[in-house]
Design brief:
Structural class: alpha+beta
Number of helices: 2
Helix content: 10-25%
Distance between the termini: 15 Å
CATH superfamily: Dimeric alpha+beta barrel
Strand content: 25-35%
Strand order of the largest sheet: 2-5-1-6
């Protein structure tokens, strides 16, 4: 089964701009530990994963009444900023929940990927 793990907000982690070099190194270490744990776990694979630019670099499109508008900035109704994602292949949600404890203490949204066919 595939799962999309969205890194939604800083949670208990200070904003990146407030990190010392040592704190940044520690956070990178947590991401590396997560990747290693996924690689070592039977039936688990990271299919994709990326950090995203800050909200002020986003572009939003909307289509209403057949007309498309393009605006600078994040989706206005979003409370948190989407900071990154992982697309995982895993046996079940329990495995994903266990592995994500290795990530920094961000707020996460985990959603199963469905096959619409």
């Amino acid at each position: 089964m595939k799962y999309l793990v969205l890194l939604m907000a800083d949670g208990e982690v200070p904003a990146w701009s407030e990190h010392t070099d040592e704190q940044k190194e520690s956070v990178f270490g947590q991401f590396e530990a997560f990747g290693a744990a996924c690689a070592e776990r039977d039936g688990v694979a990271i299919l994709a994963g990326e950090a995203l630019g800050s909200a002020d670099t986003a572009t939003t499109t909307r289509t209403r009444g057949g007309e498309r508008t393009v605006t600078d900035g994040p989706f206005a109704e979003a409370v948190e900023q989407l900071g990154g994602f992982y697309l995982l292949e895993a046996p079940d949600l329990d495995v994903v929940l266990e592995l994500t404890t290795l990530l920094p203490a961000y707020d996460l949204q985990i959603s199963p990927v469905i096959d619409p066919s």
